[in-house]
Design a protein that fits this description.
The chain has helices at about 1-5, 20-30, 35-50, 55-75, 80-95, 100-105, 125-130; strands at about 95-100, 115, 145-150, 160. It is an alpha+beta fold. It has a domain at about 75-165: Beta Polymerase, domain 2, CATH 3.30.460.10. Strand 2, helix 7 and strand 3 form a beta-alpha-beta unit. Helix 4 crosses helix 5 (about 80-95) and helix 5 runs antiparallel to helix 7 (about 125-130). The protein is globular.
Length: about 160
């Protein structure tokens, strides 16, 4: 019966924890901060084993997201933190967000603006992300919003598309 309930579960629907191992797996995954990739893989494996595989999809998604952010940072296009902020915004509106301009070409200076292409962006979606993406207005240091949104992507110029998780 319990296996049928888990199999019939819809994405995003809560799942019942059926043992202390599920709880232990969640505690380990959420509270241990590994310092190396090897340690991170060990923590992920332990969480997957303790949750009988149920933690695997979330861990795989998180690892893929971190790997893409690190690749963007290695290429000195944008920092991994900025990548993750844009990915979170993209996930919030369920649309890809493309970075263009000097940020995408790797020629940006500290105070360069942020240029994005977000196709078919409506005002409701914009209100969900406008304060969280890089370039957003800062009330702490009183800087204005430094973002330009374009409707179409020019494929002849550098760009970095970040997809929802």
């Amino acid at each position: 019966m319990e296996a049928d309930a888990i199999a019939a579960r819809k994405p995003g629907q809560a799942m019942m924890l059926d043992s202390m191992f599920d709880v232990l797996g969640i505690i380990i995954a959420n509270n241990i901060e590994p310092e190396t990739q090897t340690q991170a893989l060990g923590v992920a494996a332990l969480a997957i084993i303790l949750t009988k595989g149920r933690a695997a999809p979330g861990i795989i998604k998180a690892e893929a997201s971190i790997a893409r952010a690190e690749l963007a940072a290695e290429k000195e296009i944008i920092s991994s933190g900025d990548f993750l902020r844009i990915e979170n915004a993209s996930t919030r509106i369920n649309k890809p967000i493309t970075v263009v301009g000097s940020r995408a070409s790797g020629k940006a200076k500290a105070y360069s603006d942020w240029d994005y292409v977000i196709e078919n962006l409506n005002s409701k979606e914009w209100s969900k992300i406008k304060n969280s993406i890089p370039g957003a207005r800062s009330t702490i240091d009183n800087t204005p919003r430094n973002i330009d949104i374009f409707k179409k992507l020019d494929l002849s110029r550098p760009y970095l598309t970040i997809y929802p998780r």
